[in-house]
């Protein structure tokens, strides 16, 4: 089968003919129709993080398609079902985290397109217990970004504890951030959007953000504080240390700064301000299967819709270049 393969960190991906996966009794085989390109895939191919991916690697954790084979122990899925294969490829199912609804924190989890091969390919193996069905009225292209960008930002907003009428600031209006704005609006929150360039800020405005700020031309912290008095929560999806610093500084007393983006840097945290202001700084990592089902339901009800740019698997190296340059407005989805 055809796949885009990363053979060495920071090397170009190559389109190769590799073996089609063989499934086990609890697996399914998915014929991939589309796969979103997440900034995490770029971090994986660059070896940015302390925990390294398998190598060679078939990236991709926003793969969607139809089931073509079902392992004999999987009874709730059938050939022909439309499913997606998220970052949370599997978890152990019996540790404290799995038992208490935090399977996304399981220490024994596998991750699609990182510890196991992902969906930049014509076929992808999935754990039948962790692939999630796509509602009938969402197309493959529209569904793909929800399997990471959607569930991650939906979950981050839950983690933020923001309530209807509260202010939330979204830093980074990229693949994740443009969905964060939509989920926040759908949840009744007032939204500040921070990124750079007319395209992204106009998109944020169109999607319902009330205050849109360009981090290259404005004093973001001063502007957010004067417009909102300090936000109840900030969600940082920016791939930049300065974005994290600003997202911390705009939170009001008692508010939450939710860290989502994963630049390979450290974030300085002032102890005095954090203590005196009673600010929480919390990480949020993708979501559970239940979060994913909920986030897909928002799309099925027409409350959110990914802005997608359709490309081909063969375009992957140019897509990565555009991502590095910040030239993508919405989410690129490769049709496979
Ligand atoms: P993306 O490239 O589509 O978007 C990132 C955006 O951040 C871009 O629009 C860029 O212009 C903007 N940006 C850069 N510096 C900024 C700043 N100082 N202030 C505001 N905006 C700034 O990337 P993406 O796919 O949305 O992913 C974003 C990050 O989230 C990546 O690091 C990715 O690995 C991470 N991620 C985390 C999770 C999780 O579960 N926590 C899940 C998926 C992705
Ligand atoms: Zn577990
Ligand atoms: Zn992702």
UniProtKB/TrEMBL annotation:
Its cofactor is Zn(2+). It comes from the Bacteria. Keywords: Metal-binding, Oxidoreductase, Zinc. InterPro entries: ADH-like_C (IPR013149), ADH-like_N (IPR013154), ADH_Zn_CS (IPR002328), ER (IPR020843), GroES-like_sf (IPR011032), NAD(P)-bd_dom_sf (IPR036291). It is an enzyme of class 1 (oxidoreductase). Pfam families: ADH_N (PF08240), ADH_zinc_N (PF00107). Residues 11-334 form the Enoyl reductase (ER) domain. Its EC number is 1.1.1.1. The keyword Zinc applies. Belongs to the zinc-containing alcohol dehydrogenase family. NCBIfam families: PRK09422.1 (NF006940). This is alcohol dehydrogenase. It comes from Colwellia asteriadis.
């Amino acid at each position: 089968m055809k796949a885009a393969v990363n053979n060495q960190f920071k090397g170009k991906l190559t389109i190769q003919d590799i073996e089609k996966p063989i499934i086990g009794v609890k697996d399914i085989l998915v014929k991939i129709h589309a796969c979103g390109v997440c900034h995490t895939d770029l971090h994986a191919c660059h070896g940015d993080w302390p925990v390294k991916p398998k190598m060679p690697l078939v990236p991709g954790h926003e793969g969607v398609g139809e089931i073509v084979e079902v392992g004999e122990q999987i009874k709730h899925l059938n050939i022909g079902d439309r499913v997606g294969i998220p970052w949370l490829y599997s978890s152990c199912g019996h540790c404290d985290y799995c038992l208490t609804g935090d399977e996304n924190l399981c220490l024994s989890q596998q991750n699609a397109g990182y510890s196991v091969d992902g969906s930049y390919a014509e076929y992808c193996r999935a754990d039948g217990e962790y692939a999630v069905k796509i509602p009938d009225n969402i197309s493959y292209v529209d569904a793909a970004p929800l399997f990471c960008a959607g569930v991650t930002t939906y979950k981050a907003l839950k983690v933020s504890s923001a309530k209807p009428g509260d202010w939330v600031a979204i830093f980074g209006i990229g693949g994740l951030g443009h969905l964060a704005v939509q989920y926040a609006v759908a949840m009744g929150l007032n939204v500040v959007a921070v990124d750079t360039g007319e395209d992204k800020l106009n998109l944020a405005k169109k999607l319902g953000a009330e205050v849109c700020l360009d981090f290259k031309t404005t004093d973001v912290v001063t502007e957010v504080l004067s417009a909102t008095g300090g936000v109840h929560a900030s969600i940082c999806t920016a791939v930049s240390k300065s974005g994290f610093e600003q997202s911390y500084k705009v939170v009001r007393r008692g508010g939450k700064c939710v860290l989502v983006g994963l630049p390979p840097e450290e974030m300085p945290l002032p102890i005095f301000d954090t203590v005196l202001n009673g600010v929480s700084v919390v990480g949020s990592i993708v979501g559970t299967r239940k979060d994913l089902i909920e986030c897909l339901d928002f799309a099925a009800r027409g409350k959110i819709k990914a802005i997608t740019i359709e490309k081909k698997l063969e375009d992957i190296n140019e897509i990565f270049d555009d991502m590095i340059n910040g030239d993508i407005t919405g989410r690129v989805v490769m049709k496979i």
